[in-house]
From TrEMBL:
GO molecular function: RNA 7-methylguanosine cap binding; translation initiation factor activity
Record keywords, A-Z: Initiation factor, Protein biosynthesis, RNA-binding, Translation regulation
Protein name per Swiss-Prot or TrEMBL: Eukaryotic translation initiation factor 4E-1
GO CC, one annotated term: eukaryotic translation initiation factor 4F complex
Pfam families referenced in this protein's UniProt entry, alphabetically: IF4E
Organism: Cryomyces minteri
Description of how the protein assembles with itself and partners: eIF4F is a multi-subunit complex, the composition of which varies with external and internal environmental conditions. It is composed of at least eIF4A, eIF4E and eIF4G. eIF4E is also known to interact with other partners.
Domain of life according to the entry: Eukaryota
Length: 201
């Protein structure tokens, strides 16, 4: 398996905190045994303060749009607005296990960069970050097709749609519950974490 790094974003004090001061690297691991040791000793998502986030990313990738390995990518995301009815701890665990078990994508896709959970006043949001938005990117990636090498835009879209469907299945969502994919640059230009969706499943 890959080596993964767990990150934590603590809530802002409201005094103009810098994002880099709020984002903390917790620990890296490269085995399922180590993962369970960490998971059993950190605060459950349901117990986190508002405006907190957990991020689980491949080692060497910061959970930021600006990271060179993320800047051409995007994310699948879903908001759970009924917080009291949402088993967020189970859902977040299942998504993390799918990421480290590499079941969200096929072997040569090279798309999944990390997963994130946001704790907000009106909702929980779980996201899955990808290396591309379906187009090939400079520098490619690890696998034979990573970063979209050798893929047409149609093939790139198919890869992302397949990942999105697996993401939706793991979140145990109904057919009428829509998961959206948007590019990081689209979100940046819109001035929001929610940009117009490129794809939906």
């Amino acid at each position: 398996m890959n080596t993964w790094t767990l990150w934590f974003t603590k809530p802002s004090s409201g005094k103009g905190d810098n994002w880099n001061d709020l984002l903390k690297q917790v620990i890296s691991f490269d085995s399922v045994e180590d993962f369970w040791g960490i998971y059993n000793n950190i605060t459950a998502t349901s117990q986190l303060a508002l405006k907190s986030d957990y991020h689980l990313f491949k080692k060497g990738v910061r959970p930021e749009w600006e990271d060179p390995q993320n800047k051409h990518g995007g994310k699948w995301a879903y908001q759970f607005k009924e917080k009291k009815q949402t088993q967020i701890d189970d859902l977040w665990l299942h998504i993390m296990l799918a990421a480290i078990g590499e079941t969200l994508e096929d072997d040569d896709d090279g798309e999944v960069m990390g997963v994130v959970v946001n704790v907000r006043k009106g909702f929980y949001r779980i996201g899955l970050w990808t290396r591309t938005v379906g187009k090939s990117v400079p520098g490619g990636g690890d696998g034979a097709n990573a970063g979209g090498k050798g893929r047409t835009p149609e093939q790139g879209r198919e890869v992302l749609m397949r990942i999105g469907k697996r993401f939706k299945e793991i979140l145990d969502l109904k057919d009428n519950e829509v998961v959206e994919f948007s590019g990081h640059t689209d979100s940046a230009h819109s001035g929001s974490t929610r940009a117009k969706a490129k794809f939906t499943v």
